[in-house]
Design a protein that fits this description.
This protein has 19 helices and 18 strands. Strand 17 and strand 18 form a beta hairpin.
Length: 462
Amino acid sequence: MFKNIPKVDKVMEWPGVKELFATHPRQIVVDAIRLTLESLRAATARGETDADSFEETALVQAILTELERGKDPALRRVINATGVIIHTNLGRAPLAETVIDAVRDAASGYCNLEFDLEKGVRGSRSARVEELLRRLIGAEAAIVVNNNAAAVLLALSSLARGKEVIVSRGELVEIGGSFRIPDVMTQSGAFLREVGTTNRTHPRDFRSAVTPDTALLLKIHTSNFKIVGFTADVSVAELADIGRENAIPVMVDAGSGNIVDLSPLGIQGEPTIREYLDAGADVVTFSGDKLLGGPQAGIIVGRKACLDAMKTHPLYRALRVDKLTLAALDGTLRLYADERQASLMIPVLRMLTMRPEELADRARLIARRMRRALSSDVTVKAIPGFSQVGGGSLPEVGLPTTLVSVSIPGITPQNLDLRLRTGTTPIVGRISQGEFLIDVRTVSDDECPDVVSALSAIASSR
């Protein structure tokens, strides 16, 4: 099957390939040859091509295409038409325009990362962000590390290494990327003590499990799944009472990191970080790039005595964030000084707060643009549907939206999806019940022309 596929050294002698060596580094050309030949072997094995009939000219062109592909940046701008607001695979929370400007300023030259401009001496890199967090959330202290898994690891390592951490069995979560709470506990050196059952845990379960070796009571917000039916769990306030009775701190892994009241939006049951602290939690950890709408970061807030122990732990330096993350987080937090401003300027909050009638108007406008740009045999219609919050946040919440369904004769929904994903500006939509759908909630006004242009090009190429 593969005997007629040439070896790398033979391909290197072809005149067309020798020309590539004159314009590209040798090793890069050799790598492109290997990748191209591997692709040819794979396609032959799948029966998609016949290795006996390949043409030298076509293979040289494929090598050149591979070379050009290697010049593309690893991260590309993608239009998210899925309706999943916090899409982990697409980079989670997009940043506000003012925040992007702040990151650009920090990246384009030197900055006062660890320099006190007033005193002219070394300063703390995260002091400003920590102060913003203290004011916004009402915490005694705050720490920023590179993601929430790091925040949990640092907290457990600092407060419970070599001792027991009690947690409800129903809260031992696994989130995306196979991140499991028991595994993090193992890495931290803490010992897991499970109590209760999968669906029901009571305060008495925690009380009876406390021993002299207990260092921490842990509550984990199950932000990416929901147990319903015959259930019971222990509230933060109840855990705090048990903690005070036994002089044991209480930690909450809040995950999604909500700092504003979402109930006016009709989103119930998602506590704010301040509410966890007011209920008696000593330490709360959460993500920066979920409901907060900022960059990837792990944020720890709570009692100063607990957080001081974390700041002196060796892991703290290993997990600290860089200047670009700090600039993005600082810019995002400053927008929260005015919640109305935050809901307009922070993309995640803006998409969460879009009214159904606003989305319907946007969908109808996009549909009209598509009908004008596409041939008459293309079917475009606006239909009702639901968006998702995503990012392991609010798993039961479906946000009413309006979807744009696109059907191009001769092109299956799966093929349309593929061609949009692999276009000059990748567009990621969704397929449901045999239809290719675009959710306008996550497509900005500036992106609409790109979507229409891409669909027009695909329809014209039939």
